[in-house]
What we know:
- Helices cover 48% and strands 14% of the residues.
- It is of the alpha/beta class.
- It has one domain (18-295): TIM Barrel, CATH 3.20.20.220.
- It has an 8-stranded parallel β-barrel with strand order 1-2-3-4-5-6-7-8, surrounded by 6 helices.
- It is globular, with a radius of gyration of 19 Å.
- It starts with a helix and ends in a 10-residue tail after the last helix.
- Mean pLDDT is 91; it is low at 5-13.
- It binds flavin-adenine dinucleotide (FAD).
Amino acid sequence: MSDMFANSNQAHQSNEVRASFEFFPAKTDQASDRLIETVERLAVYEPAFVSVTYGAGGSTRDRTLDTLTRIAAETALPVAGHLTCVDAARAQVDAVIDAYAAAGIRRIVALRGDPREGVGAKYVPPVDGYRNAADLVAGIKARGNFDISVSAYPEKHPESADFDADLDMLAAKADAGADRALTQFFFNTDHFYRYLDRVAARGISIPIVPGIMPIGNFTQVSRFATACGTEVPSALQRRFDDQDDDEARFATSVAVASEQVIDLYDNGVRQFHFYTMNKSPLVAAVLDALARHLRGETLDIAAA
Ligand code: FAD
């Protein structure tokens, strides 16, 4: 456990770093048990919230709610339910919002979502549904006092014609009542800094929380990156090309993500949203590295 996160009062006084952790819903009872163990291992970092995704096209609606309810009951951590409005009538989406409220879930990550066929399939706004994520944020606000996170895209969303169009949607979501934006993952941190400049120039003032994806499996993450328009720098590729065993790959993954969060921290970032892929060791190692950095210890990560 890192001292930095051991006591939230101390953490707030000394450096105010807060993490949030994203999980996907478990498919089986066994996987659900393992997920709870993972969440418990990360609970020592006292996350601002832990969130559970909502499968493409709303395919995991019940499992998302079950997983959230279980995490809330067994860990007492603040939970956030993801919610998409793609391929769903307004009444169906509203029923999920009300189910979240009834289960005591007051935080929602509100998204347009991708069609069931996945990323790249053409999005068609549902005839009798919410038109887009901004419309959904307004709908959620109208049904209760929820804390709402939305998405943001430092390298722009693949469907956005340009950054202006992309920022128009972020501005609309902020105007509709979003409390913060969690970004798509990125590896070239310059994209994030340039994006913050663009967001500020556009007059958007909600916090933009960087999404951090520690690389558990380079091939898989590269595939995700290609699908969502995230640059994989060639230097990053080379670092993984050089590794030929699991231990070396793990050390490289820790080094890459630690360097990223430390760079962000040194540039003023205090909140981080981690894509955990339902695993704790990488995320824990990265947060421990950040804690050592805050204590002024030299990191021996360049060797990895
Ligand atoms: P929006 O915010 O509505 O749009 C994003 C950008 O795309 C906008 O800036 C806009 O310029 C552009 N855009 C949107 N629609 C159009 C259009 N019709 N034509 C042209 N441009 C358009 N997906 C899930 O299914 N379940 C999840 O739980 C989930 N969680 C996520 C969590 C985070 C933090 C992030 C970053 C993404 C998540 N996603 C999830 C993925 C997300 O659903 C997709 O990226 C989806 O394609 C866009 O949804 P959005 O809410 O980001 O869209």
